[in-house]
Amino acid sequence: MSNEILPLSVVAKRLEHCSGYEFQCILRTLKSPKYVNQQLLKSDLSVLIAKLLKLLRSNDDYHVWKGCHVAAVLCSYNPVVLSSHADGLLHVIYSKVEQKAQYYSSTVGTPQGKVTLINLVRTIGILMDLVRGKPALTREALTPKLGAIIPTLVSLSQFEPQLCLPIIKKLLLRSTTTFRPHINKFRAVLLNLLLKDYHHFDKSTRRLISDCFAYLHLIKQNVQAKDDNQSHHKSFQDDNWRMGLLSILFQFKPVISLCNELLDFNADSDMSKLVESLPKPPSGTNSFEEIFPSLSVDMNSPMTLWDIVERLSTLVDLTISFISVPTPYAIRVPLGGIISVCETMLALTTTYLPLQRGLRRDAELTSTINDIFPQIQWQAIRMLNHLTGIYGKCVLAHLPSLIASVESFIPLKHGSMTVDLDRIQALRGAFVDVFELAATWISYMGHSFDETTFFTKLVEVSLCLTDDINPLNDMFVVLNRNSRKQAQTKKQKNASKSYTGSMSDLYSHPKSFVCRSSLRVFNAVNKFLITICSFVRLPSNQQIKVIKNAIIIAVKQKAELGYIPKSFINLLRTLVLYPGNERVTILPIAVTLLKDCGDDVFNAICNPRLPMGAVQIVEETQALGADLNSATIQYPEPSSPQTLESSEHAEVDVNKGSELEHSMKCDVQEDIQMTEEETKATGIVTVDKITTDTTKIFKKRVIESEESNEHPAAKQLKISEPEEVTNTVKEVILETDLPASTSYQKGGPEDGDEDDDSEFEIPAIELSEDEDD
């Protein structure tokens, strides 16, 4: 293959006029490491950089767009270009961004202008990330230009926060000193975003705004002279950070106290204690600033009550940012104060606190109140979830009270302790966070959990959330009730058709209107069930419901998606390994469902791989071969009990077991008087014969085991027939634990080694002294 590369002069010529796929090919060509050559700086690279700068200075948005991509690729894959031309490229690009930002309205008036602005800002972020961390480049190319780049990005962030805030966030963390002159202007931009447009942005942009607000407290703005009485106290690096966090926590109490106008706190003494335990600024201090103005709520306009939820949601987001973003130094977090705020917000529920008496008659106000308090509780669960995930087991000291507080979030039917499944469907997103929080707690505590009521309710809720929602059920119930009360006339039916449209699909295809649960809900529920089944023994009825639900949904997911999601595979595996109090396993069903997946756990359970005894088996086989290949087999003396059978009966057919028993009774004396010469004459067996008959030994053992099962009476033989034996012979009793055929095999001429330690032996026959005479 040729090592020739495309000359950069050719690339420079085509760069201005290329488009489409040709431009993509040029970008792939510039990624080649063969262009990383310092000798090209004076020739081809200088020509290419000149052409690139011309594109970036152009008034054509398309040329600027191409120049941004070429600059990003060259600096990312060519360290020579980054080291030699990063300064010039940064200067040209941020000048272009400054020009676009000054005329923002006209720039974003066209789609081409907005795309060009986005690429310019992203290219600045890429170049700054590439330069940062390299001492010489940072000192010469980046730091001198930050004074011009930061104000441009700050002014642009009020219009494009999702575009500029990621870059500003890095500058706040890594270039704190350089950012100090612009801190007040950026604070004003962030406060404007927090107060007016915060909930208009998506979730990621809201998190960027709150993170940047937290990072503002890395910079000390006003250095005040210390009080002489407090001068002996040690100062910490995180003093400014801690003051910012406390100023956020102090603003929870006024908002929560406002809820006392809706719920009667005096009905529960514990609620009053919780409100009093909320963090509040020390008396006589004005060092804590109030970020948000006071709320304005009108009882005559119930929709204004949602401002309470909005304010608490913003405060929770800011608190999460303060406790979760990375900082250059260690910070002190008031865990007790944060947990106190969470417990108080979770206690705001109409299940245990009654409404104020003057509000109970207004249906609109009552309905709004019943809707906003579950949302307030959800904000507390979000904060607890982040707190537990970050600080882990530091929260375990408060776990008993937290479990009781989170349990109050589960809606119950009026006047009973039964879970209200109808209200749960409206809180799907909130219960996803509850499941994640509960799974984290269980994983920390393990089998030491004593609380079961809370988890029993959560299991019931989880099984409810996995069901599909059919919004037509309530409508059908109402229609059935109305049809029983009154019948419409033909004229009324025709009039109703004129403004209702086509309603036939509601009755003919009601399943097409079903709202199915998302995979995110399934994953959260399965993770919770996996954790609780691993550490907690559920009641039998709930364990059966979990098993049934897991199998049914897994079958549905396989039919719809063509595969079973990973969370269901883990759940089925857990239900097999932890069956709880059930004695029936679902292993066959799980293996059938996952036969296409090839699960290793189920393969090991169905086909257990026991330790191999290959070495031991080989040694036994070699020992057996050595015995068989030995010289002439020697047999014991005639008086030995092994001479009960001659060599020609060494291999006895199993079917002749009864004949052998009869021959033992009748021919005992003849066998005893067999001479040693006859035994040797009939007992000489060649090595070849033994080698060829080795297979019969193993076959014979199998047949003998079957014979022992078929003739259990042959295990004990008793020869006690004095009428067939002379008076000089005593009664002989022969007892053995194996059939007669086994005895002859072990005592036959094929197994006559005296050193054999076989466990099958025939006891000796005792003869009287009169017979020897």
TrEMBL record:
The keyword Nucleus applies. It is found in: Nucleus. It comes from the Eukaryota. Component of the RIX1 complex required for processing of ITS2 sequences from 35S pre-rRNA and the nucleoplasmic transit of the pre-60S ribosomal subunits. Regulates pre-60S association of the critical remodeling factor MDN1. Signal peptide: none annotated. This is Pre-rRNA-processing protein RIX1. InterPro entries: ARM-type_fold (IPR016024), RIX1_N (IPR012583). Belongs to the RIX1/PELP1 family. Keywords: Nucleus. Residues 750-760 have a biased composition (Acidic residues). It comes from Lachancea fermentati (Zygosaccharomyces fermentati). Residues 636-661, 703-773 are annotated as: Disordered. SUPFAM superfamilies: ARM repeat (SSF48371). GO terms for biological process: rRNA processing. Residues 7-200 form the Pre-rRNA-processing protein RIX1 N-terminal domain. Residues 646-661, 703-721 have a biased composition (Basic and acidic residues). One of its GO terms (cellular component) is nucleus.
